[in-house]
Design a protein that fits this description.
The chain is built from 10 helices and 72 strands. By secondary structure, the protein is mainly beta. The strands form 19 sheets. The protein has a 9-stranded mixed β-sheet with strand order 1-2-3-4-5-6-7-8-9. The radius of gyration is 65 Å and the shape is flat. It holds the Pfam family IG_AIR9.
């Protein structure tokens, strides 16, 4: 132990740790723990310590609690070692200060007691980051000036000489301030000043809750009051504080103002959330001085939670206006204004606002401007500066109004955006921009208006000047353009013609925008000049546009005629005389019409396109119509003239209905399509008859194919395999005239098609557990056993074949979840011909089915003592933590929840009742399915059996209750037989009670047994026949005690004395506790003064009095001794009456009695 103390005193703490790691080697652990805690504490109160470096102090760096109260310390030299100290009590010493710099190393210090010293200043007290309590009461402090203490909660400075609050420290979490019995208490509203200096954390002043009146007074002072108090300003009335604090700060600033300037005002508006907050710094020139150059003011905004804190600069807040943010609510704003004159920066002045208030959520327009030149055609834009006041910025409502001279503004339709393009209607009008701010929450502010000057007209101009009309000889063309620039006045127009020789243009017409083209203009360009002039006569810049060269007039044709027979399928020609072009270049187009007179081209139906050929074969479609030829004359270079028309003298005639050819085309194979082709002549075909036939032989009449009636195409079906197909056509004209029928026979018998699938798709829903089936259309003869294969495609595109899935149906498994499923089919014809394998579209992704319990069964026997479990078949996605509950169901239907384990052990409580299992399937993603319930049969009781039978240690006269365990339904009245035996029998011998021998004695037939003196030294055995309540018996169970019955401790009771004749006394008592051995007897003599004296030699049950016994009382002592020499407690009888002499007693009988007792004991 001495070694450990030396290690601690010499800072050998790594060795000290060995004492705790190996306590059995170094000593008791609890003592070491107490010793180690003692090493963290130093208490030298009242030891007259003069120096911390004294030999008896022993400061170590591990000390946390140091008490040096009531000593003679006057310096803190040596305190630097206490780096872990939490509580330091230096009260009532001889410190005068300021000499507290050594405390800077005590960074963990939480409580510092300096009361009762001679300290005059705390300026040297360093900032201690963890200091929470500071007591400097009963000193000679004149102020509380010291470094800021960030965590100080209690400052006790009572009984000092404090007269001022100047240089009050920054204490952001101070809750209790005590300055009782100081001169400063005479200061009016000292409590209000303290509230201003400390802030909202202050809860008690001078050990009392804050006064409501003082709190209200503190709120009436401006925000800079606390700062001014710290600088030395004396508190005045609240209504004069604003002017007084400004004057106080002015006196401090005035020596640093720019020459020739005075500060008239320095303040900040009441700030509101997201509203413009203006600062006002007014520097005015001294009339006696001239200030040159001009003074420039530079601003910087700061924010902080307390007025006395170190304010943090707000990035980019360098203007005269700042918009407080939501996070600024409840904080102070500070503005520093730096005057700059030329290149010289002067010291800044400042103003502090009150706390930022929350906005009311109703936006307002701070400033509204309209930018853009107010000239027709320009785009102007309205700009709104919005104070959102705590609301979420939204899209405001903008609109434009037009106000003419001396009239009310009217809304401009459609002008509902911030931008607006000035139009002709706005000229000589003033525009009004109206803006209503709206937040996202729907709060609307007051609309604001901004009036513009009057809109001016743009200079006259013209754009998109062009010439309308075909520039062809004889046509009239017109020059047009888009005028802009106020109202149009008498604009000027001029036409000019190109001179082919010089290229110059010569004026040919003025004053009109239209011009008729003449022969002189052919081949030349024309120029149109548009000179815009507004209504006031101002002329703009003219615009010229050139035309294409003027074309010559097109060629013409006359005497157009149609020559030839006007019958169906006949050839006719057209002739005519062409001028201005050539016949070989001219084109003819043929038409038909139902009228014999021409009424324009709109009533004509084209029979051909325009061609150079003049001959035309009359088609069937022209039967019954008049033929019209359109003759268009053209020059070799492609110039066309006006067309001329010729119409036939009569309508086209028709021929009798007939065919000029009939054939069948296509493949004579199953599934193939046969197409009948024919050439009909004889007017307009009516409802001709078509039929298809099947023939076993080419010569038979055949059977009609119903699907082939009335159609020209016939699909070869399976029924046609091995047979011939024919097509019969009966021509019928539209007027009902029927021609001769004709038949065309197929050239070969129909062959079966190659087996293939026309379609293959999967039918069913993409949900796990559902059955998918194949829906296919087979083609190619009689289908045999087609081959199916199912595939699973994962999300990464990997496709695998699903084993065992080879039929036309498939049940989706849990492995398919998240994958796509497809099926392939290889068609097989009945003759084993195989077709191409077809793969269906993928179905999926497969989603999990709803969690479901498809089947639920019990496992185990419904009998007491058995263990029930269950097996559940789950489906519905990846199995999660399915939930199951076991219930016991009574005969009246009441359920009792038993457990949620995987199994249930049936107990006696379950006998005669049902067991219900409720299984709730749960998917891995937490989705629950419908619970599944299963109810068992009635639980039967088990056969009665004794599981355990133990006989505890047996003692004389103490009831023995064996420890037994019964199982098998409700226990009934079993049979119990207790057996006493001198020998320890085995179980087989005990079972046969009748043959156990004479040394076996039955001593009881109840469950409990109380051993008697006869049982002492013998073994007790119990025969137990377990019996159920219904009388059914189980196998008997026997058990024997591990040791013989123990005797009870020897005790004696009812000890008393009997007086016999002739001065003889006999002692008697009742012995208990096994077999009595040689018990001890003693006699005592009680004198008149109450003293009890042992009579030497009196060790028998009888005692003959002697002369010494006269006038005394006798007591008999009985000490029981068991046969095994165990001694019991001595018991004394009650004293006899006074022993008096008996003159008549005879000595012989008494002596004879004593001798007899002596022989009896031996």
């Amino acid at each position: 132990m001495l070694l450990m103390i030396q290690c601690v005193l010499h800072n050998k703490f790594d060795y000290v740790c060995l004492f705790f790691l190996f306590p059995t080697f170094f000593g008791p652990c609890q003592f070491l723990c107490d010793f180690f805690l003692l090493l963290q504490r130093l208490d030298l109160r009242g030891h007259k310590v003069r120096s911390l470096n004294a030999s008896g102090v022993n400061l170590t760096q591990n000390l946390e609690f140091v008490y040096l109260r009531d000593n003679l310390l006057h310096t803190l030299e040596g305190i630097e070692i206490l780096k872990r100290v939490k509580v330091l009590d230096l009260s009532f010493n001889e410190f005068k200060g300021p000499e507290f710099e050594p405390l800077e190393n005590c960074q963990a210090l939480q409580q510092l007691y300096l009361a009762g010293n001679q300290i005059t200043s705390l300026v040297s007290l360093p900032e201690l980051p963890n200091l929470e309590f500071l007591s400097v009461a009963q000193n000679k402090l004149r102020s509380l000036s010291m470094a800021g203490q960030p965590r100080l909660q209690v400052l006790a400075a009572s009984k000092n000489k404090i007269t001022t609050l100047k240089s009050f420290p920054h204490l952001p979490v101070l809750e209790h301030l005590r300055v009782e019995e100081n001169p400063i208490l005479k200061m009016p509203h000292l409590e209000a000043a303290s509230i201003l200096l400390v802030g909202p954390t202050l809860k008690k002043f001078n050990d009392r809750d804050l006064s409501r009146e003082e709190v209200a007074i503190a709120k009436r002072y401006p925000a800079c009051t606390a700062l001014c108090i710290r600088y030395g300003w004396e508190l005045c009335r609240p209504d004069k504080a604003a002017d007084s604090t400004f004057c106080f700060l002015y006196e401090q600033w005035k020596e640093h103002f720019p020459p020739g300037y005075l500060l008239k005002d320095a303040l900040v508006d009441q700030p509101f959330e997201e509203d413009a907050c203006h600062c006002h710094f007014v520097f005015v020139q001294d009339n006696n001085l001239s200030a040159d150059p001009q003074l420039v003011l530079k601003y910087q905004w700061f924010v902080e939670e307390r007025a006395l804190s170190s304010f943090s600069a707000i990035p980019d807040a360098t203007g005269e206006v700042y918009w407080p943010k939501h996070e600024d609510i409840g904080k102070f704003l500070k503005v520093e204004c730096t005057p700059i004159m030329g290149e010289i920066k002067y010291p800044p002045v400042f103003a502090i606002s009150s706390r930022v208030s929350p906005g009311n959520g109703i936006p307002k327009v701070v400033n509204l401007e309209v930018q853009g030149e107010l000239v027709e055609g320009n785009v102007i834009k309205g700009y709104a500066e919005i104070a959102w006041c705590g609301g979420t910025p939204g899209k405001g409502v903008a609109s434009w109004l037009r106000r003419r001279w001396n009239s009310s503004p009217t809304v401009i339709a459609g002008a509902e955006d911030e931008e607006y393009r000035l139009t002709l209607d706005d000229i000589d009008s003033s525009l009004v921009f109206m803006y209503t701010p709206v937040t996202e929450e729907g709060a609307k502010g007051e609309p604001q208006y901004k009036y513009t000057d009057f809109v001016k007209a743009a200079p006259p101009s013209v754009s998109n000047v062009r010439i309308i009309g075909d520039v062809v000889e004889g046509n009239i063309v017109k020059g047009v353009g888009n005028y802009f620039g106020g109202k149009e006045g008498p604009s000027k127009f001029e036409w000019l013609r190109e001179n082919k020789n010089t290229g110059d243009f010569v004026s040919i017409s003025t004053g009109t925008s239209e011009y008729a083209l003449t022969n002189e203009d052919v081949g030349r360009h024309l120029a149109f000049v548009y000179s815009p002039i507004n209504f006031e006569g101002q002329e703009g810049e003219s615009v010229t546009i050139l035309s294409l060269p003027v074309k010559r007039a097109p060629p013409k044709v006359k005497n157009v005629k149609i020559i030839g027979h006007l019958r169906e399928n006949s050839k006719v020609t057209v002739t005519g005389t062409v001028t201005g072009g050539t016949e070989s270049s001219s084109r003819v187009q043929w038409f038909k019409t139902s009228s014999s007179t021409l009424d324009g081209e709109n009533s004509l139906d084209a029979l051909s396109t325009a061609k150079i050929a003049k001959a035309f074969r009359i088609p069937l479609g022209a039967v019954g119509y008049y033929i019209v030829a359109k003759y268009t004359p053209m020059t070799p270079d492609g110039e066309s003239g006006e067309p001329a028309y010729a119409i036939s003298e009569k309508a086209v005639e028709t021929l009798p209905p007939s065919l000029n050819f009939l054939s069948i085309s296509g493949d004579y194979i199953e599934g193939g399509i046969l197409t009948a082709s024919y050439g009909y002549v004889g007017g307009h075909e009516g409802k001709s008859e078509y039929n298809w036939y099947l023939h076993e032989f080419e010569s038979d009449t055949g059977s009609l194919i119903l699907e082939g009636s009335g159609v020209l195409q016939c699909r070869v079906t399976r029924d046609a395999i091995g047979k011939f197909i024919s097509f019969q056509y009966v021509p019928v004209r539209d007027d009902g005239i029927v021609g001769e029928p004709r038949t065309c026979m197929g050239i070969e018998r129909v062959r079966p098609g190659s087996p293939r699938l026309l379609s293959l798709q999967i039918v069913g829903t993409a949900i796990e557990g559902t059955m998918l089936t194949v829906d296919k259309k087979y083609w190619g003869g009689q289908e045999g056993n087609s081959v199916f294969r199912w595939f699973r495609t994962s999300s990464d595109g990997t496709q695998i074949e699903i084993r065992g899935a080879s039929t036309a149906s498939y049940v989706l498994l849990v492995d398919d979840i998240g994958c796509f499923v497809s099926v392939s089919c290889e068609p097989v014809r009945s003759d084993w011909a195989r077709g191409p394998i077809v793969l269906s579209e993928q179905m999926g992704p497969i989603i999990p089915g709803p969690p479901n319990c498809q089947s639920l069964e019990f496992l185990g026997s419904m009998m007491e003592g058995q263990r029930l479990s269950f097996v559940a078949s789950y489906s519905g996605g990846e199995k999660g933590d399915c939930f199951h509950e076991w219930y016991r169901v009574k005969s009246d239907g009441i359920k009792e929840k038993l457990s949620e384990d995987e199994f249930l052990d049936l107990t006696l409580k379950d006998v005669g009742k049902h067991i219900e299992l409720v299984y709730t399937p749960i998917r891995k993603d937490g989705a629950k399915g419908s619970p599944q319930t299963i109810l068992s049969d009635v639980i039967a009781p088990a056969d009665p059996v004794g599981l355990e039978l133990v006989i505890p240690y047996c003692y004389e006269d103490k009831e023995v209750t064996p420890q037994k365990t019964y199982f098998g339904g409700q226990e009934g009245a079993g049979e119990y037989i207790w057996i006493r035996t001198r020998n320890k029998l085995n179980k087989s011998e005990l079972l046969d009670i009748a043959n156990a021998g004479d040394h076996v004695l039955i001593c009881g037939k109840t469950l409990a047994c109380t051993p008697s003196i006869e049982d002492v030294g013998a073994y007790l055995a119990l025969y137990w026949l377990p019996t159920r309540a219904d009388g059914k018996c189980g196998k008997p169970l026997v058990s024997i005690s591990n040791s013989p019955v123990n005797p009870a401790l020897p005790v004696v009771s009812n000890v008393h004395v009997k007086k016999l004749p002739s001065g003889v006394y006999a002692g008697e008592g009742k012995y208990f506790g096994g077999h009595e051995g040689l018990s001890l007897f003693s006699w005592y003599r009680e004198t008149n003064d109450g003293a009890v004296i042992l009579i030497e030699g009196a060790t028998y049950r009888t005692y003959e009095v002697t002369d010494s016994d006269y006038n005394c009382r006798l007591l008999f002592g009985y000490t029981p001794v068991r046969s095994d020499s165990v001694v019991g407690e001595l018991k004394l009888s009650e004293p006899t009456g006074l022993v008096l002499p008996d003159q008549n007693a005879a000595n012989f009988p008494s002596k004879f009695y004593v001798a007899f007792q002596t022989l009896h004991r031996k």
